[in-house]
Structures are given as C-alpha cells and as structure tokens.
C-alpha cells in the first residue's frame, strides 16, 4: 500500500517520532492489563481500539505510533470504503478520520458510522476554515481536531471521547440489563391483547361444543327410541302410537341438520384449538429464556411468533404481510432478544400507521416483514405505510428516552434497546429509510455466524 502523497499535506509535529510496527500480540487478554490505553474496566479487559483513516501513509504511521505508545490498539485504512470493510469485521471504539480522501471521504464515512455503527468518530482536518466545529458535531462526530496537533493533544482528545463513551455505554448497559425483564414485561403489557386473541376461538369452541352436546342428547334419545322400536318389532308389538312417538323424536332431533352441521362444528372446534395452541407456542417462543448464549435459530419462526402475539396491536390499523425467505439459514443469535427487537419495530410501525390514519380508522395501512440472505448476512426489513420520521428527529430516535408519543403510549426505550441488541449484542447493523407521509423501513443486518466478539 503506497499511498504517500506529495508534500502538500505537511504534518507539523513538535517531537520527533521513530516508527515501530505494532505487535498485535500485545492485545492478547491477560497481557493487556499493562497498557495505559486500556481505559474502560470492561468485563473482558482489552485495550481500546482506534481505527485510523487517512490516505497519507506518514500520517497513518505517526498516529499509530502515538496511540500504540499510549497502549491503544490501532488499525489503519486509507479511505472510507476500506474503513467500513474493517469495521464490518471488527469493533472499534473510535474512528479517527481525515476528511479529504479518495473513494469515500471522511464526511461520508462519519455519516455512515454514526448512523449505523457503535463507534465514535473524531474528525481531523487541516482545512479548519472550510468546516465549522458545529457542522462536524451535527454530522455525528464526537470531536473535531485541527491539524497540526501535538501527540499530547491527540491523546487528550481521544481519552476525553473515551470517557464520554464510557458513561454512554454504562447507560446502555443499564438498558441492556433491563431488556430481559422488559421482554417479560412486554408479555404482561400484551396480555390483554393476547387474552382477546384467545377469547375469540374459545367462544366458538364453546358454542360448537354446546351444539355438539345438544345434538348428542337428541341423537341419544333417538337411538333409545329406535332400540325400543326394534324390541317391539321383535315381539310383533309395533302399533300406530309407537310410530308417531318415534316420528316426533326424529323431528325434534332435526336429523338432517345435525348430520350436515356436526362435521362443520367439529372442524371449527379443532381449528380453534390449533389457533390457541399457536398463540401459546408463540408466547413460549417469545419469552424464550435466552440467557447469554447464542445458538442457531430460525429467524422466520421468531418473526411469525412475534406477529402472532402482537396481533391485537396491529390488526385494527394494518394488514401484516410476511415475505420470508424459506431458504434463510439458521442465524446464531439470542432469539429472545431478537423477538424483543421485532416486537418493538412492529409496535412502532402500528403506532405510525395509526398516526397517519388519524380518525379514518376504516382504512388500513400495511406492515411488511421480509427476510433475505445477503452473502453471509441475514437481512430483515420491517416496512410500514405510516407517518414517516421527520428529518429533524431522525438522528435522535435511537437515543434512550426519546419519544414523540404521549405519556402512557411510549417511554422512548424501544429503539435504544433495539439498537443495543442488534449492534452491540449481535454485531449487526440497523438502517432507517423514511419518507414523510409514505412510511418507514427499518433494515437489520445480522451476521449468520458470529464474527469476532469483543
Ligand atoms: N416506524 C416508525 N414510524 C415513524 N416514527 C417512528 C417509527 N419508529 C419510531 N419512530 C419514532 O421514534 C421515536 C422513538 O421510538 P422508540 O421505539 O424508541 O420509543 P417509543 O415508541 O416512543 O416508546 P417505547 O418503544 O418505549 O414504548 C418514536 O416516539 C417515534 O417518534
Ligand atoms: Mg417503540
């Protein structure tokens, strides 16, 4: 990789630095305890990881040297595209990026990383007059450093962002711990809806069973009368009176109607029983105990279960279409956590559709859930024909406690939990595409098999 640029980008460094190649074995757990770059006391201690993105080779080397000397693990990329490739296979705490680069510049990279990944971004530039601090922060960057900078300054800025990140992660961790209890709570909140869903088949099972019971009593009476007739015929004692009493019983039994309706009543009863079985199976799957371990799971089944238990949330405002790729291989995941994700997105979609429909409740919107395999990733998209997300709140929707809903309808935790389950716990991505008044699509991509976990 020879991407050294001519001397138009001079780096003014106040101390002389000798480049040493970084020894990756230094980041093996157990040895990392020695490093100053280990900023956070994580469960599994590791040095913080910085991805340096710059098209100037000398700058890459210099920054690596400064950061490695302070105990940080670093990796380098020469443009935005290369950085995204590295980020897709490994987690980094901070992306330290230049702005002007070929293929994909630092601004596009920042936008992509801050919207879809969990790393913080620090932007460095020599053209401070071209871009304001506010512009960079609004883009999603956590800090903005002017070149030239001293090694002390870069270390200070990196540590400041890591400290903020640590507090933010603590808050997220708190939400993650709540995720499991929330899943069970959701069952509680959905209980009224689920009870209603079970009540409908229970009612027709009850009505049909009463009909079957009445018919059986009438048939029983008819059989007894016919046995009496047989007995009388054997003794040659059948008289007119006996025949007319038998005719009355046959009429009372409405024999033809019973013969026609009995199989229908039995079919409907069995259908009701299987509907209830389906709801109970979905409830069991949904409240999957999960634990910490990931295991291969059929995501299509997770989606079907969640659609069943949330039916009372969406059926009054939307139809739900499932377009599931039956060839999707099992995905290593925590199915209970992903059920929570699907539930949050389905409930949000229903609310957005209800918002858009307003009073016109006779119309219905549409929720569409599709699964596809894309190379070694599983893609799940949940689309709605709801109100859409206004541009000005788009980058806030994942913030904990951000909600536009009235008290009692939303707490603003759904998407914060969704993002932390997808990104932090499953190394996945979540993307939003939204059109005001046309609807929103949330697209989740998950690795089919686990990649390196940190
Ligand atoms: N599909 C969607 N369409 C339109 N707006 C949405 C959609 N999903 C989320 N939002 C917006 O994002 C905000 C945050 O969503 P989030 O799920 O985190 O919280 P909530 O739904 O308000 O509350 P909670 O999920 O905790 O009950 C919502 O209040 C809403 O404004
Ligand atoms: Mg929600």
Q: What's the short story on this structure?
A:
The chain has 454 residues and is of the alpha/beta class. It is built from eleven helices and twelve strands.
What does this 3D model show about the protein?
With 454 residues, the chain is α/β, with parallel strands linked by helices. The protein has three domains: 24-149, Rossmann fold, CATH 3.40.50; 201-281; 293-447, 2-Layer Sandwich (Heat Shock Protein 90). The protein is built from eleven helices and twelve strands. It has helices at 57-69, 80-89, 106-116, 133-138, 151-234, 240-253, 255-286, 299-309, 311-314, 335-357, 414-424; strands at 49-53, 73-77, 94-98, 120-125, 143-146, 295-297, 318-323, 331-333, 365-374, 377-384, 429-435, 439-447. α10 runs antiparallel to α11 (414-424). It is elongated. The model is unreliable at 1-43 (pLDDT under 50). The structure holds adenosine-5'-triphosphate and magnesium ion. Magnesium ion (MG) is lined by residues 344, 347-348, 410, 414.
The average pLDDT score comes to 83
If you compute it from the alpha carbons, what radius of gyration comes out, rounded to the nearest whole angstrom? 33 Å
CATH architecture heading of the largest domain: 2-Layer Sandwich
Low-pLDDT stretches are 1-43
- Span between N and C termini? 28 Å
Write the layout of secondary structure elements.
Elements: E1 49-53, H1 57-69, E2 73-77, H2 80-89, E3 94-98, H3 106-116, E4 120-125, H4 133-138, E5 143-146, H5 151-234, H6 240-253, H7 255-286, E6 295-297, H8 299-309, H9 311-314, E7 318-323, E8 331-333, H10 335-357, E9 365-374, E10 377-384, H11 414-424, E11 429-435, E12 439-447
Parallel strand pairs: 1-2, 1-3, 3-4, 4-5, 7-9
Antiparallel strand pairs: 6-8, 9-10, 10-12, 11-12
């Amino acid at each position: 990789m020879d991407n050294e640029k001519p001397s138009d980008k001079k780096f003014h460094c106040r101390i002389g630095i000798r480049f040493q190649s970084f020894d990756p074995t230094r980041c093996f757990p157990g040895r990392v305890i020695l490093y100053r770059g280990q900023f956070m006391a994580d469960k599994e201690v590791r040095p913080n990881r910085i991805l340096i993105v710059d098209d100037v080779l000398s700058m890459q080397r210099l920054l690596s040297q400064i950061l490695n000397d302070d105990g940080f693990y670093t990796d380098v990329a020469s443009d935005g595209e290369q950085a995204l490739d590295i980020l897709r296979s490994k987690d980094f705490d901070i992306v330290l990026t230049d702005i002007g680069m070929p293929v994909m510049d630092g601004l596009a990279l920042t936008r992509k990383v801050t919207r879809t990944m969990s790393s913080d971004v620090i932007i460095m530039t020599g053209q401070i007059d071209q871009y304001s601090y506010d512009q960079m922060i609004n883009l999603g960057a956590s800090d903005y450093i002017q070149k030239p900078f001293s090694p002390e300054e870069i270390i200070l800025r990196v540590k400041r962002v890591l400290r903020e990140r640590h507090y933010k992660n603590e808050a997220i961790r708190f939400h993650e711990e709540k995720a499991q209890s929330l899943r069970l709570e959701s069952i509680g909140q959905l209980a009224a809806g689920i009870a209603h869903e079970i009540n409908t088949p229970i009612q027709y099972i009850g009505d049909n069973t009463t009909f079957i019971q009445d018919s059986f009593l009438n048939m029983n009476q008819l059989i007894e009368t016919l046995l009496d007739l047989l007995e009388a015929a054997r003794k040659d004692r059948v008289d007119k009176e006996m025949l007319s009493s038998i005719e009355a019983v046959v009429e009372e039994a409405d024999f033809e109607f019973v013969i026609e309706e009995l199989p229908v009543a039995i079919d409907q009863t069995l259908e009701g029983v299987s509907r209830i079985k389906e709801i109970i199976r979905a409830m069991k799957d949904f409240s999957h105990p999960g634990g910490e371990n990931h295991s291969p799971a059929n995501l299509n089944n997770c989606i079907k279960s969640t659609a069943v238990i949330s039916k009372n949330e969406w059926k009054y405002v939307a139809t739900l279409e499932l377009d599931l790729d039956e060839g999707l291989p099992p995905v290593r995941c925590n199915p209970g956590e992903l059920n929570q994700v699907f539930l949050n997105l389905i409930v949000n979609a229903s609310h957005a559709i209800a918002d858009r429909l307003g009073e016109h409740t006779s119309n219905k919107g549409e929720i569409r859930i599709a699964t596809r395999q894309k190379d070694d990733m599983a893609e799940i998209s949940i689309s709605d024909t709801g109100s859409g997300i206004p541009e000005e709140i788009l980058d806030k929707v994942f913030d904990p406690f951000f909600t536009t809903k009235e008290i009692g309808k939303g707490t603003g935790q759904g998407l914060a939990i969704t993002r932390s389950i997808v990104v932090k716990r499953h190394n996945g991505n979540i993307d939003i595409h939204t059109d005001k008044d046309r609807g929103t699509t949330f697209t989740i991509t998950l690795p089919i098999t686990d990649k390196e976990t940190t």
